[in-house]
Amino acid sequence: MLNEFRQDLVSGEWVLFATGRAKRPAARLAEAFGVAQAEIAPVFDKPGQVTEGIRQKAEDVKDKGNIGIGTACPFEDPEGHGNEVLKTYPGETNSETWFAKVAKNKFPAVIEGEAGPRQAVGPFSVTEGRGLHELVIYGDHDRQLHEYSAVELGRVFGIYQERYRAMAGYSTSKYVLIFHNKGTSAGASLVHPHSQIISIPILPPDVKRSIFGAQRFYSEHGQRVYDLMIDWEIKEARRIVYQTENFIAFCPFVSKTPYEVRIFSKTSHSHFEHCPIELLPELGEVVGKVLTAVDRTLPGADFNFFIHTAPVEKVNDADPHQYYSWHIEILPKLSLTGGFELGSGVTVNIIDPDQAAEEFRHAL
């Protein structure tokens, strides 16, 4: 099984080879049936929502693949389906047995363990794919995050912070990424709502560009670039989706994808894990409003959201708090990447962010 990061000689970008991910349940079923994962994903939903034909296909391969599906969603009972649960967060009502469970990913993108020194393979640099890969599995199979209350979403972000701190203390961790995929086109292999947290031994290219870009802007202008962006968006008031006393959500002036939204703290800080716990319900309110607007404006749309925060270690011994701000990016999946985008590196966005923000505000 191949599990390593390989660095491109020209661009300097890293590619993670994680062939064990091909063993995920949806991927194994899709391979067995010769269909796309999107066609087979419903087998992991509740039994009553699975067609008899798909159920029979699942039964046909269940024993061979030892997948353990066809009768119930594997995340309804994580332990019963072989997931190593690290912590259970109890429900707050009598009808809610558990709010969330944190479990090790059975099909991790990185393998737990110490990463050895970077190796040279011919002219290329290679780093072992070591780190931690966890799941935050939510107790309610039928509720998506936009249906959570502000307090519940605040609790979700509190779990994120807790797991981030635990992962950041792992010796191999240079960066910890928190993300949530909703829908097969966004990379979710199971219908059941769940987030993922992964620590890796490199600084990801996209984060590296943001960190160094913000550092360069600060060096040249003596101002934090994200503060400048937020101040301008507030002054313009055209692309704001929702804001509270401490947080703001807007469609960026330079949105890379249709209906992209970014959420910032108005009190800038470089590290998400340092966001005061008493502000997390307020953050949950803003995230919930944005996700609700996405669902109402783009019914059924898949999306990704992730948290960009400063690296675990300082970059160039500089204090990232001087120039960087943690933030959340929410990206609905509405467009495909074509030849022009792939060949030029220039993104084509077919939706004016002013229009996107107006539609979102109207939906609320």
Automatic annotation (TrEMBL):
Superkingdom: Bacteria
Tell me the InterPro entries matching this sequence.
ADP-glucose_phosphorylase, GalP_UDPtransf1, GalP_Utransf_N, HIT-like_sf
Q: Which GO terms describe its molecular function?
A: UDP-glucose:hexose-1-phosphate uridylyltransferase activity; zinc ion binding
Domain Galactose-1-phosphate uridyl transferase N-terminal, chain residue ranges per copy:
99-204
* Active-site residues annotated for this sequence: H194
Record bears the keyword Nucleotidyltransferase: yes
Q: Which GO terms describe its biological process?
A: galactose metabolic process
Q: Which SUPFAM superfamilies match?
A: HIT-like (SSF54197)
Cite the entry's keywords alphabetically.
Answer: Carbohydrate metabolism, Nucleotidyltransferase, Transferase
Concerning Pfam families, the annotation shows:
GalP_UDP_transf
Q: What is this protein called?
A: Galactose-1-phosphate uridyl transferase N-terminal domain-containing protein
In its UniProt entry, the species of origin is given as Candidatus Yanofskybacteria bacterium RIFCSPHIGHO2_12_FULL_45_19b
Q: What is the lineage of its organism?
A: Bacteria, Candidatus Yanofskyibacteriota
